[in-house]
Amino acid sequence: MIARCGLDCRECYAYPDDCSGCNAVAGKPFWTKEVGEEQCQLYRCSAQKNYLHCGDCKELPCKMWYELKDPSCSDEEHLLGIKDRVKRLRPQ
């Protein structure tokens, strides 16, 4: 249940009752409406580039990853989350 951005949907409080996972809902999880978006920007970007996930992009992590921050996270938590997601998408 790894989303295109490297999040593990199973770790989300909304999964599976309120959301069946980002891939299953085509990048339109519950929170997109809360922030006034039709679709997750990261999902849309990777889909438009015909990538399976953001790990296929040479710019990972891009500016968008840093800008899309959960307001409930500290800056440190946000950066650690990015690092974990990149590892998940590009295991070495």
What's the gist of this structure?
By secondary structure, this protein is mainly α. It has four helices and no strands.
Q: Can you characterise this structure?
A:
The chain has 92 residues and is mainly α. The protein is built from 4 helices and no strands. It has one domain (9-89). 36% of the residues lie in helices and 0% in strands. The chain is globular.
Topology:
Elements lengths: L29 H5 L6 H8 L14 H5 L7 H15 L3
Number of strands: 0
Number of domains: 1
- How many whole angstroms does the radius of gyration measure? 13 Å
Mean pLDDT: 95
Helix content: 25-40%
Report the biggest beta sheet as strand number plus sense, adding barrel if it closes: none
Head-to-tail CA distance between termini: 20 Å
Low-confidence stretches: none
> Which structural class is indicated by helix and strand composition?
mainly alpha
Shape: globular
- Provide the β-strand percentage band: under 5%
Question: Which key features would you list for this structure?
Answer:
92 residues, mainly alpha, globular
